[in-house]
């Protein structure tokens, strides 16, 4: 699996020049700058520790321009279990030192040498094996997989203690290494796809040169594949991909099998027999064997899964939250990072950036929801990873309903085979409520006052019933130039069932630069205090207000009525 581009994390403007030099090495890398201290960063963050830990947990390589000790203390709580980890480096602010800290098996030393060369300094490599042999034996190149890590550590330890080694199989990357080779050595580096029992005197490295083609009708697919691999004496570590017919894209058993094997799932067309399916999909010469349900295609060199068949297209409908980067959920950030195409209203798409140079942006008018949804399915049906952007939550007056409606109306099998996911976001009503306290702390109703998609008579009826029910109310789209009178009418309806002293919260651009929050009352509220970018929260009969120590007020709706405990 391809690791994401590094994140370059800086604490002050003094690091920016060095960060830009490093970014020239990795054009897709983003510079993350501490808010109010760094000008010109690609992304801003508010808390160094939380940001670093989030990047680490997302398996993102980290290049931190600060003291190594800060990074170590920050990530220490995540290092209880030693295992696979992303590369983590500390670089001096002036670029005078490059120190690899974590990710020896993830290529951190290679990364450190590349950065050091660009900065014209020496990388502080401390790994004994790399210093002695000029390579990390436990980190084979792309297309190859290490067998047993713990046995590998003992193997390297024996080499460092003075033993010699012989190479069995093709390992061209070791030709330039300073290994103490001896054809009669007890220790051996064995490279091959055959299943072998791990032994203390062997370092097993497996080329990922096997494609597994499988029929969707296989019972207990995960176990059946492993049993078939064992029968053919093929190591699981040599499997590069799982291949199936395109018509089986939506089969969950295939997806689960690929996840269990830890390999990409690809699809091809043009043949019913799984062996022929593999032969037609793989451009290079392969040996095919197996049966009519599970076939293996073995190549002489590691296979590139991205060149075989195509993936199942993915369409994610995401919510950015109210606008602040820290209020965007991690799953949404990860989805944006892996997307090929991003669609949405231009204002929201720009909020979702910055983007890589290879990501395609499709910006449209805010009134073109159905066309946007259909376009998203057309792209995803081609095997692309597509994101449709909404502000707030995509299921609250946003794009999730339009995307599902487009799918509901379509009989195109390719659209229905797309991997569709709806990822939530923090809605404007919830973000505004959180700023004020908890005005939506009891039952509440969310309504749009726009009559573009529903008649005003329906809005009036719902307002009347919701106000009668004593629900707290959240108004989206409260007023616009084309609808200057409707908020006033809505307030008249609510006032028939609420006292003038009922608290009202007005949140404008909450989560964005220049946000404002105001608390007033239903009797004092007039339409001229509100615009289209204002969220209006009207309390219920139990909503309370009390002063804050900073001069403001807290607003909350208790979770009880007359039966207060």
Briefly summarize what is shown:
By secondary structure, the chain is of the alpha/beta class. Helices cover 29% and strands 24% of the residues. The radius of gyration is 29 Å and the shape is globular.
Number of strands: 28
Work out the helicity level: 25-40%
Mean model confidence by pLDDT: 92
What structural class should be given to the helix and strand makeup?
alpha/beta
Structure description:
The structure is a single chain. By secondary structure, the chain is an alpha/beta fold. The protein is built from 17 helices and 28 strands. The strands form six sheets. A six-stranded mixed β-sheet has the order 3-2-1-4-5-6, with helices on both faces. Strands 13-12-11-15-14 form a five-stranded mixed β-sheet, with helices on both faces. Helix 8 (252-261) links the parallel strand 12 (239-245) and strand 13. Helix 16 runs parallel beside helix 17. The longest helix is centred in the C-terminal third of the chain and has 13 residues, at 456-468. The radius of gyration is 29 Å and the shape is globular. The protein starts with 6 loop residues before the first strand and ends in a 9-residue tail after the last strand. The model has no long low-confidence stretch (mean pLDDT 92).
Characteristic key phrases:
five-stranded mixed β-sheet; alpha/beta; 565 residues; 28 strands; six-stranded mixed β-sheet
